[in-house]
Amino acid sequence: MFEREIKYFKEHKEELLKHYKDQYVVIKGDRFLGAYTTEPEAYEAALNEFGNVPFLIKKATEEEEIVRFPALAVGVVNANSIFKLFQGNGQRNLLTIYARIPSFDML
Fold first, then answer.
1. What is residue 23's DSSP assignment?
2. How many CB atoms are located within 10 Å of the residue 33 CB?
3. pLDDT of 33-78, one tens digit each?
4. 3-class DSSP state for residue 12?
């Protein structure tokens, strides 16, 4: 999941940093939707454009940020596809993946 979006981000990272540094970019497949100043703003724009389907929201930064917290602390013990760790350039990176689940709505 998100292989195309991650590939797009990596291939366009220099351009995204030049124009949208420290903003949240939305990518679906090979399509760049836009850049937003906050994650909730990016999330709403992506929902309005794509609907309730997977899409990537990633902050355009030079260095990858790693965020760690226990699943129990955020109540996602049984939720699938909320977070995905992937390997990139030998570093572990964390991407936020938004999903609407009947009893859990994460923003």
1. S
2. 18
3. 999 999 999 999 999 999 989 999 999 998 876 655 555 555 555 4
4. helix
Share of the chain above pLDDT 90, in %: 52
Please name which of 45, 59, 55, 52 lies closest in space to residue 93, comparing C-alpha atoms: 59
And the tokens for 39?
């994650």
Rounded CA separation 38/2 (Å): 21
Cα–Cα nearest to 56, from 39, 68, 78: 39
CA 78 vs CA 16, 37, 72, 91, 96: distances in Å: 34, 30, 10, 27, 16
What pairing do the DSSP bridges indicate for beta strands 31-36 and 24-28?
A: antiparallel
Comparing CA positions, the residue from 103, 43, 60, 54 lying closest to residue 83 is 54
